[in-house]
Amino acid sequence: MEPKSTIETAIELTAGSPPSTQPPVAARKPVEHLLHGDLRVDDYGWLREKQSPDVIRHLQAENACTDAALASTNAFQENLYQEMLARIQQTDLSVPYRLRGYLYFSKTLEGKQYPLHYRRPVDESSSAGAAQYIAPQTGNQLSHEAGQLLLDLNALAEGHSFLGLDTFEVSDDNRLLAYSTDTTGFRQCTLQIKDLATGQLLPFRAERVTSAAWSSDNKTLFYTVEDEVTKRSHRLYRHTLGDLGADPLIFAEPDERFRIEIDRTRSRSFLLLLCASHTASEVRFLAADNPLGDFRLIAPREDFHEYYVEHHPALNIGGTTANLFLIRTNSGGRTFRLATAPLSDPQRSNWRELIANRPEVMLSSVLPFRSHLVLLEREAGLPFLRVVPLSWERQSPDWRVSDLLANSYRISFTEPAYNAAPGTNPEFDQSHFRYSYESFITPRSVFDFDVSSRQSTLRKRQPVLGDYDSSLYATERLHSLASDGTRVPLSVVYRKDTPRDGSAPLLLYGYGSYGISMPVNFNSNRLSLLDRGVIFAVAHIRGGGELGKPWHDAGRMRNKHNTFTDFIASAEHLIAARYTNSQRLIIEGGSAGGLLMGAVSNLRPDLFHAVISHVPFVDVLNTMLDASLPLTVGEYEEWGNPQIAEDYFYMKSYCPYTNLERKPYPAMLIRTGLNDSQVMYWEPAKYVAKLRALKTDSNPLLFKINMGAGHGGASGRYDYLREIALDYVFLLHQIGVRS
């Protein structure tokens, strides 16, 4: 038996005395902080002491209070849970993808929390594996033909409250599987190697692994690990099968702003070591068939220069073939361009432009195939997939590189708001491109696009059991006007019979950080809100990536207030357009979106009726002043460095915890996980404690802590669905819906 952790011991020490169902009052233990001549007093810093029985007891008291407050809704929660579960095809299979003679797929079984991962040999008598998949209208899934079980995540989860699968890499000879799992939610993964011929684990185990990649010799595995304290991915090691000594350290990244990752090019020819901060990057490469060689630098890092690398062994452009690196770079424009570099000397002076920067089009990624490139682009807030054929011939001796883009085309999508993204495309030589498509009303769909015929074939559409009819719903793309005149996109969905007289309840979601785009995705759970008359909307505010890097830049560092005022403007627009009113408006966000929730609740508490905030980043100033915490130093490029006076005072101006005041606030449900490694549990714990002491209203303030999970909440699909049911019951009760 493993020894108990200090957390388990602390939890055991709290057993035996059931906590009160009344809202707990946290003790005030003031600690003064003086910086830049500014004195701050933090009364609740003691809640950081995770090993303390007093802290655990306080969190358990918060859970008991929330459970008591929602006890009368237990039947409604169960009904919602069953209602949402009834829409899910619980026993199901993913669309298989082909890799080196095998079809890989996952399976879910009714009653099981986690998927099982399989493979089976390709039947070469059928068409390239894709035709071995039953068409959606004839069953929507693979036949249950026996396959080789690679991993059963349910078995791996036994004895744990959490299970996450990260690395899943098969060696080139198809014999070995390198995989990593997290059993706490702290995003701390253990890497192991399984012999797929025998089913046995090899005598190898690495902790705190963040990425891994095989060389082509089938016996050498490169992997990166994180620092034990700050969780920064910073070291690269090389493991050779059969070598029982310590794995040699290949590379160490000293700059605390940078994190590293190891990967293989899609051509499988090279290993790539990426070192990246939020604003700069550099890449080293090593031939995959020379694992004992030295990694070579492509171009040294420069401030504010990001570049990312792929490879094509026979790039055919206008009749000329070359073995080249493909470089996606923001040199020449914040929305990136595409260049090539020779393998022999890939330094920046030898880069040749292939696709020029287009200021209004964000080049988000590039996927090379033997016969074509696929570009993921964003324009006007929407994603696009562009196919660039590589087999066309130049039409005249005056051929120019710009002709490459002129001979390309986008896959057509017709809905006003949607999400489209590359799917699983592991083989470089495949003639099709797999992508996923969905919208608020179109379930997630997997397509194979044939580059020769320019036709998309639907391989699977997410089953929605019951009587779902997409024609009963409508989706719209709107724009609000920010105070500085900027147009902010909004995506909206509702039932067509929902009144548009301002009386309908509306859930407005927002994020707006790190350049991350909020997808317009389908969620069958959401039907439980739409069918009860709730409108759902996403505000694509600055700080996100919907309109490319400039959109991100406009909502980070000392532009962060734009994120909050954009969200407020979006809410006001929805009210003015009579989608809802302030007494029926609920807002939701998580992580950095929880910062958004805290900031706008401080700025305009009158505008929102209720708030749902998940793992919220609300103690911005204290967290960013603690360089020992995960993410802090690396995120100076997102929020600023509070050791700099100007950054300190700007961050202080919006920090939710710092700016809580004695005034009324909306009703709130706040969630966190005890094992969260990205936004520590104590941030919302401190925020709730201070808010309880200050708020002057009688609105509910509920705090729910998952004591066995991390940043993403419950990992099991049934457990997660129960968390959604609780959120929905809170929301619906706030607008007077009881069933």
Account of the protein in words:
The protein has 739 residues and is an alpha+beta fold. The chain has 14 helices and 39 strands. Strands 32-33-35-34-36-37-38-39 form an eight-stranded mixed beta sheet, sandwiched between helices. Strands 3, 4, 5, 6 and 7 form a five-stranded antiparallel beta sheet that branches. Helix 1 crosses helix 2 (53-69) and helix 3 (74-85) packs across helix 14 (717-734). The longest helix has 18 residues, at 717-734.
Number of helices: 14
Number of strands: 39
Largest sheet: 8 strands, mixed
Tell me the fraction of residues in β-strands, as a range. Answer: 25-35%
- Which spans of ≥5 residues are poorly predicted at pLDDT below 50? 128-142
Average pLDDT, all residues: 93
Q: How much helix, percentage-wise, in residues?
A: 10-25%
Termini separation comes to 46 Å
The helix-and-strand class reads alpha+beta
Instruction: Characterize the overall form.
Output: globular
From the alpha-carbon coordinates, what is the Rg to the nearest angstrom?
26 Å
Please give the order of strands in the largest beta sheet: 32-33-35-34-36-37-38-39
Overview in brief:
The chain has 739 residues and is α+β, with helices and mostly antiparallel strands.
List keywords for this structure.
single chain, 739 residues, alpha+beta, eight-stranded mixed beta sheet, five-stranded antiparallel beta sheet, 14 helices, 32% strand, globular
